[in-house]
Amino acid sequence: MKLSTLLLSSAALVVAGSAYAADLPAKKGAPAAKAATGCSAFGAGFFQIPGGDTCIQFSGYMRSENSYTANTARGTAPYSLAGAYGLNVDARSNSEAGAIRGYLRNESGAMTRAYVQVAGFTAGAADGLLDIGLGGNQSGQQFGGSGIGMLTYSMGALSVGATSARNNNDTSTMAASRPDLILKYSMAAGPVSVTVGAASHEVVGSTTGSAQGAAFIGKLTFDAGSAKVSGYAAYAQGANSYLGLSSVKDADASAGNLSTGTNYAAQVTMPVGAAGSVGVYAGRVSATQNATSTTSTQYALWYGHTVAKGLTVQPELLNTTTDGTTANVAYLRIQRDF
Questions:
Q1: Which helix (DSSP H) or strand (DSSP E) does residue 70 occupy?
Q2: 98: Cβ–Cβ under 8 A, 6 or more apart, which residues?
Q3: Roughly how many angstroms between the first and final C-alpha of the chain, as a whole number?
Q4: C-alpha separations of 106 from 150, 310, 313 in Å
Q5: pLDDT in single tens digits along all 338 residues of the chain
Q6: Alpha-carbon distance 153 to 236, whole Å?
Q7: Host H or E run for residue 117
Q8: What are the φ/ψ torsions at residue 15 (nearest 5 degrees)?
C-alpha cells in the first residue's frame, strides 16, 4: 500500500471516531470538594467541617523540658533532658439547647482532658473548680496534670457540682463513698478579680467510721498592666489534697481525728520589653496529724521570652525546702505552640 493511501485511510478513521464521540453523552466531572470555612461565631482558628454544622479547632504544643538539680547523690544523674507534647481538639456547634462543646486534650500519649459542655453544665474530665492555686511555671498549679471527673453547673459567677473525691485517707484502700461537693464564686471589677471556694470531702478511717472534711480556698489578683500581683490562701481539715499536699493523711486510724493544714502563696508577673516577662513566686504549705507534720516552702523565679510567634524560651530557678531538706533545681523549657 502506498504511503499516501495509508495516511488518507488513517485520517478518515480519526475523523469518523471524533464524530461518533461527539454523539455520546458528555461525562460530568467529579464535584469539587467543599472547602472548609471559618466559624467567626466561635472565634479565631475554628473552621466548619464540610457537610455538617460543627466547628472545630486544633491547637497544642511541642516542647523540650530540661532540668538540673544541684547537690545530687553520687551515681544519680543531676540532669533531665526530655520532651513533651499536647494536642487539643475543641468541637462546637449551636443547637436548640445553646452552644454544645466537646473538648479533648492528649498530652504525651495520655488523655488529660475530655468533657462536654452545654447550657452551663460540664461533664467529664476537666480542670477542677478549685484548682486555682499559684506556683512556679515548672512546679505547676496545685494539681496540674490530668483533669478530674466531674458533673458541675455554672451560672455566671457561681459554680456548683460534684467531682471525683480527692482521696488522701488513712490508707490507700480507704476511699470515700461519695464524690466531693464543690462551691465556687468568681467576680471581677476593673483590675481586681476574686475567686473563693469550698469543698466537702468524706474521710474514711482505716479502722472505724467516717467524717466530713472540708477545704476553703481564696485568691485575689490585681492586674495593673505593668504588673500582675496575686495572693492565695487555703485552709483544710481532713482534705489535704486541696492544699496540694498528700504526705500527711486526712485522718489517722480513726476518721474522727482529722488533720489540719494551710497554704499561703504570692505571685508577681510583669512584662520585660516587648517580647518577655518575668515572674516570682513564694509559697508555704503545712499540715499536721497528731505527731506527724510536714512543712514545705517554695521560691521560684522565671523569665519567658518569645523568640518568634509561637516559640518561647523559659528558664526558671526553683528552691524547695521540705522539713529541713532543700532542693535547688534549674529548668529550661523551649516550647512551640500552635
A1: none
A2: 118, 119
A3: 72
A4: 18, 19, 22
A5: 443 444 344 444 344 444 444 455 555 555 555 566 778 889 889 999 888 889 999 999 999 999 999 999 999 999 999 999 999 999 999 999 899 999 999 999 999 999 999 999 999 999 999 999 888 766 444 335 689 999 999 999 999 999 999 998 887 788 999 999 999 999 999 999 999 999 999 999 888 889 999 999 999 999 999 999 999 999 999 999 999 888 898 988 788 889 999 999 999 999 999 999 999 999 999 999 887 899 999 999 999 999 999 999 999 999 999 999 999 999 999 999 99
A6: 24
A7: strand 110-118
A8: -65, -45
CA neighbor of 138 nearest in space, from 313, 330, 276: 330
Read off φ and ψ for residue 242, nearest 5 degrees: -75, -10
- Cα 116 to Cα 17, 100, 120: the distances in Å are 63, 7, 10
Q: What is the pTM of this model?
A: 0.83
Q: Strands 55-69, 325-337: parallel, antiparallel or unpaired by DSSP?
A: antiparallel
Residue ranges per structural domain of the chain:
45-337
Distances (CA, A) of 20 to 9, 10, 11, 15: 17, 16, 14, 9
C-alpha cell at 150: 466531674
Tell me which CATH homologous superfamily contains domain 45-337: Porin (2.40.160.10)
CA distance 224 to 157: 22
* Helix, strand, coil in percent for the chain, rounding step 5: 10, 60, 35
Q: Following DSSP, what letter does each residue of 201-265 receive, concatenated?
A: EEEE-SSB-EEEEEEEEEEEEEE-SS-EEEEEEEEEES-GGGGT--SS-SBSSBTTSB-EEEEEE
**Residue 305, amino acid:** H
What is the spatial distance between Cα 58 and Cα 192, in angstroms, rounded to a whole number? 32
CA-CA distances (angstroms) from residue 125 to 9, 35, 88, 114, 117?
A: 78, 33, 14, 5, 11
Q: Tally Cβ neighbours within 10 Å of residue 79.
A: 10
The amino acid at residue 248 is V
